[in-house]
């Protein structure tokens, strides 16, 4: 039985580093040197970890290739160390242990079990062996297209590229507004990819041909609730993550509010949208949230707050896509409206605020303000709100 070190190097020259390390690892137990055995085990672990880190996006393509080159060099080195210790081709005893070379230069030991002789190399044999090594390395370069710079200088461009895409809200790259929902759409030549958006708004795409490195491709988001701010943009594939800013597909479809009373958050209140047949309960921070289908969205919503199944507060709320509305409960509820009128040039020429506990009074106020503005050739707009 034999360990073919040349075969291992041939696999490396063909780019089959994984198979070369597997073959080396399979034969590690036949070597009586714990140092060499440990080195082989560490090489196998380093290679597996490097592949794993690349697949899950922990390291960049450049970092992967640099470590891959280092592992390749170490694997080649260990094959020569085995040959130096045991001979060009290593043979084993029937029990699987390696037959050592003689300790004294020029002497030979014949093993009766296999009938072979081992002799340490003389100086001229060392020169010849060095020439063989140079020839093998040259052959590797010729077959793979690599150069000395690829092994000992800057890492070569990876065969394939991995792309990481993050979607984020308007407040910056750390503004996570979408997780485990929607798809990233990327057109890589004629290949359309559509992976799901994962945790933290992160998406990974692998096996992108190296022809697309340092080229731009169109990337956008497909989601029921969000759209890309710049849906027609293209992004450069340079090994760095791509960040895409997104916004709500329906700005009025999400209502977030906080309920306070006497400067304290109120927990356990029922919040209801009567016209939408939706109900929520405030948490320990007084927070509630509604997500409304786009076909049922409105510019403002009637909202009721209940305690022990009794309505304690009615309001009209105008949602904001990225801010929470704060409702402060008082002993006597008062409603407010904010009305403005614009002239033909779009300038605000009249603005009014009116507050009253009687909602009917304010509805009549809105009708009167709108009628007067129209007669004056102006466009009126009124918004309901509580005196937040």
Radius of gyration from the alpha-carbon trace, in angstroms: 36 Å
The biggest sheet, with number of strands, parallel, antiparallel or mixed sense and barrel status, is: 4 strands, mixed
- Overall strand count: 23
> What distance separates the N and C termini?
85 Å
H-E order: EHHHHEEEHHEEEEEEEEEEEEEEEEEEHE
In short, what is this structure?
The protein has 388 residues and is α+β, with helices and mostly antiparallel strands.
Which features does this protein show?
388 residues; alpha+beta; Immunoglobulin-like; 4-stranded mixed β-sheet; 4-stranded antiparallel β-sheet; 7 helices
Structure description:
With 388 residues, the protein is of the alpha+beta class. It has 3 domains: 151 residues, no CATH class; 89 residues, Immunoglobulin-like; 132 residues, Sandwich (Immunoglobulin-like), CATH 2.60.40.10. The protein is built from 7 helices and 23 strands. The longest helix is centred in the first third of the chain and has 26 residues. The protein starts with a strand and ends with a strand.
């Amino acid at each position: 039985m034999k360990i073919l070190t040349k075969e291992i190097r041939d696999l490396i020259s063909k780019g089959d580093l994984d198979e070369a390390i597997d073959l080396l690892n399979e034969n590690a137990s036949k070597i009586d040197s714990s140092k060499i055995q440990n080195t082989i085990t560490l090489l196998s672990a380093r290679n597996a970890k490097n592949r794993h880190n690349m697949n899950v996006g922990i390291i960049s393509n450049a970092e992967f290739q640099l470590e891959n080159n280092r592992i390749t060099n170490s694997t080649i080195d260990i094959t020569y160390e085995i040959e130096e210790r045991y001979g060009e081709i290593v043979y084993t005893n029937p029990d699987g242990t390696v037959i050592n070379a003689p300790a004294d230069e020029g002497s030979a030991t014949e093993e009766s079990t296999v009938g072979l002789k081992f002799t340490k190399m003389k100086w001229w044999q060392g020169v010849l062996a060095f020439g063989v090594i140079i020839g093998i390395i040259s052959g590797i370069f010729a077959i793979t297209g690599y150069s000395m710079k690829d092994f000992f200088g800057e890492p070569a461009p990876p065969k394939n590229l991995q792309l990481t895409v993050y979607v984020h809200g308007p407040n910056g790259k750390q503004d996570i507004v979408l997780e485990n929902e929607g798809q990233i759409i990327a057109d890589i030549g004629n290949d359309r990819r559509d992976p799901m958006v994962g945790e933290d708004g992160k998406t990974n795409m692998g096996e992108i041909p190296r022809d697309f490195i340092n080229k731009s491709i169109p990337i956008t988001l497909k989601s029921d609730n969000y759209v890309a701010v710049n849906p027609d943009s293209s992004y450069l594939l340079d090994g760095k993550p791509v960040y895409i800013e997104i916004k709500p597909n329906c700005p009025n479809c999400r209502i977030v509010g906080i309920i306070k009373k006497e400067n304290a958050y109120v927990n356990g209140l029922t919040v209801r949208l009567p016209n939408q047949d939706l109900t929520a309960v405030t948490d320990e921070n007084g927070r509630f949230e509604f997500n409304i289908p786009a076909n049922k969205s409105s510019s403002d919503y009637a909202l009721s707050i209940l305690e022990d199944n009794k309505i304690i507060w009615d309001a009209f709320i105008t949602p904001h896509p990225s801010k929470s509305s704060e409702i402060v409960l008082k002993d006597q509820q008062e409603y407010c409206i904010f009305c403005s009128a614009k002239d033909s040039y779009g300038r605000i020429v009249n603005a009014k605020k009116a507050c009253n506990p009687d909602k009917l009074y304010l509805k009549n106020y809105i009708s009167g303000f709108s009628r007067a503005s129209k007669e004056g050739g102006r466009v009126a707009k009124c918004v309901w709100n509580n005196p937040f």
